[in-house]
């Protein structure tokens, strides 16, 4: 947990890639939206930490998306959290939140039209819309519905100056769901 706290302290005040909030504000708002929706603690923690891959040291990244964050941040973040004792549910919700965007673009042209400028730019780096085969595989994921909900919170969590509970409040939830072996 100390490492997670340090990552937010070191990089969390940076802008959230083309959006009017910081990394910390985006994380807190995502967790807050999950909590307001009645999500369980694991899902709230996943919402808080879904973009932690963007905060990892540069040497862990395989590249960057032209000022829009780390390539494969979702996989880097999920693997980082698995290695620290977080559940497969937390990891899956994080690892597939980008796939949810790709899926929704494939399934719904109106969704594509609603994407922010930053989301459109990152979609190019993330593989574009899913194919029919990719969509079928994604729909079979046991956390499919939760992943889609995570995507909704991710997109909504961009409101400047929104009041949320503190980082300490949500880090306590992280501690409560972390499985130290």
Topology of this structure?
Layout: H1 2-11, H2 23-36, H3 41-49, H4 73-82, H5 88-95, H6 97-107, H7 109-114, H8 117-125, H9 132-139, H10 144-156, H11 167-177
Helix pairs in contact: 2-3, 2-10, 3-5, 3-11, 4-5, 6-9, 6-10
Protein name: HD domain-containing protein
Organism: Spirosoma terrae
Pfam families: HD
Percent in helix? 55-70%
Query: What is the helix/strand order?
Result: HHHHHHHHHHH
What is the CA–CA distance across the termini?
A: 14 Å
Task: Name the CATH architecture.
Answer: Orthogonal Bundle
Question: Could you name the CATH topology?
Answer: Hypothetical protein af1432
Q: What is the count of structural domains?
A: 1
- Helix segment count? 11
Name the structural class: mainly alpha
> The biggest beta sheet, please?
none
CATH class: Mainly Alpha
Q: Going by CATH, what is the homologous superfamily?
A: Hypothetical protein af1432
Query: Count of DSSP E strands?
Result: 0
Evaluate the radius of gyration: 15 Å
**Poorly predicted regions:** none
Description:
The chain has 181 residues and is mainly alpha-helical. The protein has one domain (1-179): Hypothetical protein af1432. It is globular and about 40 Å long. It has eleven helices and no strands. 60% of the residues lie in helices and 0% in strands.
List the defining traits of the structure above:
181 residues, mainly alpha, Hypothetical protein af1432, 0% strand, HD_domain, OP_Dioxygenase
